[in-house]
Design goal:
Elements: H1 8-11, E1 15-19, E2 22-25, H2 26-48, H3 50-56, H4 62-89, H5 91-96, H6 98-102, E3 105-106, E4 109-110, H7 118-135, H8 140-147, H9 151-164, E5 172-173, E6 191-192, H10 195-215, H11 224-239, H12 258-279
Length: about 280
């Protein structure tokens, strides 16, 4: 007999409402909440830290620069997430059917852009950010340190969207926290970890709390971006042990997932950046 908790994913309709042939998913609404949360948090931060914002944005109009950066970052996020998914998780399918891999329609219905990679999104945003900062004569790390604090709050909504969509579920568990996800197959085989909720809490709320605490220290504001790389990498690396690996890839030769290997790269990158910052303070 299943409990209300374990059967909750079965009771959730991924489609919030329909407009003609377009299905508006809770997943899409969650991402809208993510963008709005990041936008308004950073807008408030620019207002409260106006003198710091003007210094970071080279005495230019910080609101205008920030809003332009935000719009470009969304473009970098979407492109990077899609390209990253193809390169990291779905390259063979892309080679065999490239148009189908990026087609947002299926059998005449709009299904959205499924298959997005968080690590690809990070790379996309970083590349767009470097280009944007160079174009406007800004220091990339100064800007990144200022805006990165908002990212975990947006990420929280993204993972809630994954949960409402019934995707990215966890591995089998016999604990009472297990859930039945329709996409995972026959629930009689076992319950699954709600790894999306683990990530929403860990990589969202807990990570935000960690960064917020460091931001109150003397050196924290100077190393927020590499701190985010390190702590996100650590938290995600641990949670990946509860998350079902991508079916088309599975585990690597080391018994780790692709996500864990990419998180390891994030941790090393963040540590190297902090070392260089402390080594060459000027």
């Amino acid at each position: 007999m299943t409990s209300f908790w374990s059967s909750l994913p079965q009771k959730i309709n991924p489609v919030a409402f329909e407009i003609g042939n377009f299905n508006i998913l809770w997943y899409s609404i969650s991402y809208l909440f993510a963008f709005l949360t990041v936008y308004f948090f950073l807008k408030l931060r620019v207002q409260k830290k106006h003198s710091l914002a003007k210094e970071i944005f080279q005495n230019k109009e910080p609101f205008l620069i920030f809003e332009n950066l935000f719009l470009y970052s969304i473009i970098g996020l979407i492109l990077g997430a899609k390209i990253g998914f193809i390169l990291f998780y779905d390259f063979s399918n892309f080679i065999s059917s490239p148009l189908q891999s990026i087609n947002p329609f299926h059998e005449g219905s709009f299904v959205g852009f499924s298959g997005l990679s968080f690590h690809g999104a990070v790379i996309g945003i970083v590349l767009i950010g470097i280009w944007f900062c160079k174009k406007h004569s800004l220091k990339f790390f100064s800007v990144a340190n200022f805006v990165i604090l908002a990212v975990p709050l947006g990420y929280f909504w993204g993972r809630i969207g994954n949960f409402l969509n019934g995707e990215l579920y966890g591995r089998f568990t016999k604990s009472s926290i297990g859930m039945c996800f329709p996409r995972a197959g026959d629930c009689n085989l076992g319950m699954r970890h709600p790894s999306q909720l683990y990530e929403a809490i860990g990589e969202g709320l807990i990570l935000f709390t960690i960064l917020w605490t460091f931001n109150k220290t003397k050196i924290g504001p100077r190393i927020m971006f590499p701190l985010w790389l390190i702590f996100y990498g650590i938290i995600r690396f641990v949670i990946e042990f509860f998350r079902e690996p991508d079916l088309q890839i599975g585990f690597t030769a080391l018994g780790l997932t692709i996500g864990q290997l990419l998180c390891f790269c994030m941790i090393i990158t963040g540590a190297v950046i902090i070392f260089l910052i402390l080594r060459f303070k000027k």
